[in-house]
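User: Predict the structure for this protein chain, please.
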Amino acid sequence: MELNIVIPTFNEKNNIGVLLEKIFKLSDNIKIVIVDDSPDQGIKEIISQYENVHYIHRDKKNGRGSAVITGMNYALEHFNCIHLIEMDADLSHEPNEIINNLNFFYSENIDLLISSRYLKKSKILNWPPQRKLLSFLANNLAKNILKVPISDYTNGFRIYSTKAAKHVTANCGEVGDGFIILSEILVQLYYNNFKVKEVESTFVNRTRGESSVTFKEIFKSLTGLFKIYKLKNKLKS
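Assistant: Here is the predicted structure, written as structure tokens:
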């Protein structure tokens, strides 16, 4: 089975090579698109040794969410996609989970499968307590407002059906450009009757580089959440 993967990056030169080594151990049939918002194109040189890795460099940091949509558009146009996998470049998402998740994805005929940090058997490793608390509270706030029966609204380790990915690229990106798009995507798909499920996952805090999440992005996400609430009500009506 071909693996089609979208990876947004920002200043991940220290991690991208390690991630690609892990991914290419999974299969001989892999196509990846990397959407890079870094100030320079240092990542392009690192990935040049790999076949079937497509590189898009954007002139400024336009946000993780818009990077994913850009990557989805590219993959849908250039790959013969039967699914799209989204994951981060900072090694927080474990590539070895991909095959089991894909098997579950196809056996259950799912449109969006989220790797959740908050199911019973899930684990979060090496996250500072304040970051863990902030994420937990943000996800519970989103769940209470948006009413999608999912525990993790903000983890970007996901698998999309081609149909779902096409819906996302056509309809999402209106409420912001950062992590809030993850919640927008979830609401768009769930309330348009796409099949959404989640699976246990182990999330590992980065050991190299710095998180690109800022308090400005957190504030924008909170304001975006209420825009998504209006979207939810519109989709339900």
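The chain has a mean pLDDT of 91.
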